[in-house]
Amino acid sequence: MQRRDSGDDFDYLDDESVYDWSRLTGWIRRHQVTLGALVLILAALGWKAAFLSHYYFWQDDFQVLDAARSTHQISWSYLTFITSGHLYPGVYAIAWVLARIGLYDWGPAAAVVLVLSAGGSVAAWRLLRTLLGNRPGLLIPLGLYVLSPLAFPADSWWVAAVEAVPLQIAIFMSLTAHVHYVRTRRYRHAIAAAAWLVFGLTFFEKALLIPVLLFAVTAGFLIRRRLRSAIWLTLVRFWRAWVLYAALLAAYIAMLAEALHSSQVKPAPPSSLHAVLTFTGELVKDTLVPGLLGGPWQWFPDQTQSYASAAPPSILAWAAVLVAATIVVASIMTRPRAWRAWVILAGWFLLADVVPVLIGRIRSVTEGALFGLETRYVVDAAAILAIVVALAFWPVADGRPEDPAQKPVRRELFGGAWKIVAAVTALIFVVGSVWSVQEYWRSTNRTAASVYIADARMAIARAPTGTVIAGDVGIGQQLVPPAVMTPVFGASAHSFTVLEPLSKRGRQLTWALQPSGTLDHLMVFGPDGRLYPATIDGTGSVKQPVRQGCTTPHRSALTLQFQAPTLNYSLFLQIGYLASAAESGQTATVRIGSVVRQFVIKPGLHDAYLPIAGAGSVTSVTVATPAAGYGLCVGGATAGILAPASGPAIPAVPAAAG
C-alpha cells in the first residue's frame, strides 16, 4: 500500500478549500442584491439604534403616555381622542401597552421605533423588488429611504416616529399588494392593499392619500398606454379595487369628522397668502430638497436643545435645488415617462405635507417661516422619493418569474461614465446623511428630561411615609421644565399630571392638588425633579408678642398684620400654630380679604396651608376658634405662592451626579 506524503495531504486540503470558496463566491454572486439590501438595512438600523440611545421622551410623548396610564381599559373613546389635531388610535394602543410595561422607560419605546423602522425598510425592499425585479439598481432608492436624514429628528420624538413610520409601511405594503392585483387580477391582493390602508389610517391621517398614490402609479407606469387612455383603463379595469378603497376612506372620514367635532383643536385656514407662500417656500428650499439629498447639514436647536429645525447654509440649499433640478431634467431627457414620477412626488408633497399644515398650524407669516423648517412634516417624502426614483430611472418589471437557466436582459438607464456619476452622487448623499445626522446628534440631547424623570422617580420612592406632595392647580411653579414639556400643554405639563403616575406607594404618600389643612410634611417638586420642603414665597406677617398671638377666655379671634399688602396673585396662606390638647379636633376659621377658609386643629406645633386665590391685596388675616380659651397660639402667617424651600432635597444626590 502506497503511503501519501505530507505534501500530498496539504495539496488535497488546498484543493478542497478552493472548491469550498468557489461555491461560496458563486452563492454570493447569485444573491449579491439580497445581501447588499440586508447589509444596507442592518447598517441603517444599527446607526439608528445608536442615535436613539441619545434621546428620551419629549412633549407630546408624556401627554400620550399619561393619558394611557390613566385609562384602565382600552376603549373607543380613548383610542379616538384627538390631541394636537391628530387621530391616531394605533399610537394610543401602543402607548397603553408601554405605560404598563414601564412608564417613561425609554428602552421599550425605542425598541418599538426600531422594530417599526425595520418593518419599513423590509417593506421598501419588497416593493422595489416587485417594481424593478431583483436588479442591483434597487439598492439606490432603498438607500435613499433607509439612510434619509429626514427620518432621524422624527425618530427621536417618540410620538412623531410611531405616527410616521407605520404610514411609510402602509405606503410600501399597500402599493406592493396593489401591483400584484394589477398583474394578476386576483381580488385578494386588493383586499390586502385595503388592509394595509386601514393599518396606515390607524396611525396617520395622511394615509387618506394612499389610494391616490396607487391610482397614479397604476395609470402612470403599470398600464403601458398613453396617459389619457391609461387613466381610463385604470378606472374601468380595476374599478372593484377603487370602490373598496373609497368605501374605507368614506368610513374613516366620517369617524374623523366625528372626532374633530368633539375636539378642542379645530382646523382653520391660514391667515394670508404671504404666510402660505412663506411656509411652502421654506419647506421646499430649506427642508425638503436638502433633506432628500442628504441635508440639511446644519441645524438650529430650540432653547432647551431638545429638538432642532433644518438650517442649511444658503449656498448649500440653493445648490441642492440646482442638483435636484438637474436630476429631474436628466431623467426626463433619458426616459420620457419619468416626468410622471416627479409629478407624483410633487403631488404627494403638496397634498400630504403642505395642505394639512396650512390648515392646522399656519396662522401668521412668522409661523410659516418657523414651521417651514420642520423636517417631521416631510419625513414621509423619503418613502415617496424611493418609489419615484425607481419609477423614473428604471423600467417596471412585468412580474413574470425569471428562467434561472437564462440570464435576464436588463435595460439599465446609465452606462459607462454615467455609472460613475451615479456612484459619486450616491456617495455624496451617504456622506451628507451621516454628517447631517451627526450634527443633529451634536446639537441636541434629552438629558435634562431623562434626569428630571429619574430624580422624580427616586424622590417618590424615598420620600418619608406621611409626606404630602403639592400638586399643580393654581401653582405656576409646579410646571415641569420646558425640556420635558412646554407650558403650552397647560394642565398636561403640570408635575402632578406627569409625575403622580410614577407613585406606587399607595397611602404612604398623599398627592394634594390644592393643599388645604394642617400639613406638616408638605413637599413640592423642584425644577430638577427632586422633592423639597414646601415654603410660601410672598408676604409675611409682622412678628408680635406671644401674648397677643394666643387665644384667651376673652379673645377667640386673632388678627395678624402683614408687613406689606399681599400680592394680588397670592394663592396660598401658611399659618404656623401651637395648640393644646384641649383644642384638638376644633375647627379654626380663617378670614383673609373676601376669602374664608377652615382647618382642623391638631395638638402640638404644626403648619396649616390654605388656598386663598381671589383674596386680593390685603393687610391682615384673622384666625378664630369656636370657643375662647388658652389653647391656640399663632406664630405667624405668610401669603404668596408655593415654592420649594432651600432645605434638604430628596434624593440628596441628583441622578446626573450619581
Strand and helix layout:
Layout: H1 6-30, H2 32-52, H3 60-69, H4 76-79, H5 89-101, H6 106-132, H7 139-146, H8 151-155, H9 158-184, H10 187-203, H11 210-222, H12 227-237, H13 239-261, H14 273-292, E1 299-301, E2 308-310, H15 314-334, H16 338-360, H17 365-371, H18 381-393, H19 417-443, H20 447-462, E3 468-470, H21 495-499, E4 510-512, E5 517-518, E6 522-525, E7 531-540, E8 557-561, E9 572-579, E10 587-592, E11 595-600, E12 604-611, E13 620-624, E14 632-644
Helix pairs in contact: 2-6, 2-7, 3-5, 6-7, 6-9, 6-18, 7-18, 9-10, 9-11, 10-13, 11-12, 11-16, 14-15, 14-17, 16-18
Structure characteristics:
658 residues, alpha+beta, 2 domains, 8-stranded mixed beta sheet, 4-stranded antiparallel beta sheet, 21 helices, 51% helix, elongated
Description:
The chain is of the alpha+beta class and 658 residues long. The protein has two domains: 27-443, no CATH class; 450-644, no CATH class. Helices cover 51% and strands 12% of the residues. The chain has an eight-stranded mixed sheet with strand order 4-3-6-7-14-9-12-5. Helix 11 packs across helix 12 and helix 14 packs across helix 15. It is elongated. It starts with 5 loop residues before the first helix and ends in a 14-residue tail after the last strand. Residues 402-413 have low confidence and may be disordered.
